Amino acid sequence: MGFAALSGALSVAGDAAGKHLLAADAYRLDLAATATRYGLIHALALLGLIVLARMVGTSRWPRIASWLFVAGLILFCGSLGLIAAGAPHGLAIFAPWGGTAFILGWIALLPMAVRR
Q: What phi and psi values does residue 57 have, to the nearest 5 degrees?
């Protein structure tokens, strides 16, 4: 739950900072907006996975999906947010890995859907 809370807080702060500090730079503003959008979506998804894990008990899939979402938040949202803040563009190499982690996290929930 802590990572979901941190992700939500950082996403809201990042969005606010982006709107105020990056208004003159459309490219960096778009990077910040994308990072915060994915950050908020996956913060909520992590909270939902906590509830799901409690409902299904011993299934490992919510835990796997959660860790994949955490990886996606760090790699995708983190790299885009840092680039938007002025970090070297070379950090963009991590974004596809984070996006892949998000996709795999959602796919990790499929076995639960098939079993139900």
A: 75, -100
Q: Taking the domains of the chain in order of start, what are their residue ranges?
A: 2-115
The CA distances from residue 77 to 8, 10, 73, in Å, are: 12, 10, 5
pLDDT tens per residue, range 21-66:
888 899 999 999 999 999 999 999 999 998 888 887 778 889 999 9
How much is the pLDDT for 13? 92
Whole-angstrom distance, CA of residue 103 vs CA of residue 69: 9
Listed residue (33, 43, 36, 50) closest to 7, CA to CA: 43
Which two structure tokens, joined as six digits, stand for 77?
């949202």
- 85: helix, strand or coil: coil
Amino acid present at 89: H
Task: Answer for the pair 81, 87: CB distance below 8 angstroms, yes or no.
Answer: no
- For helices 2-21 and 26-56, angle between their N-to-C axes, nearest 10 degrees: 160
pTM over 0.70: yes
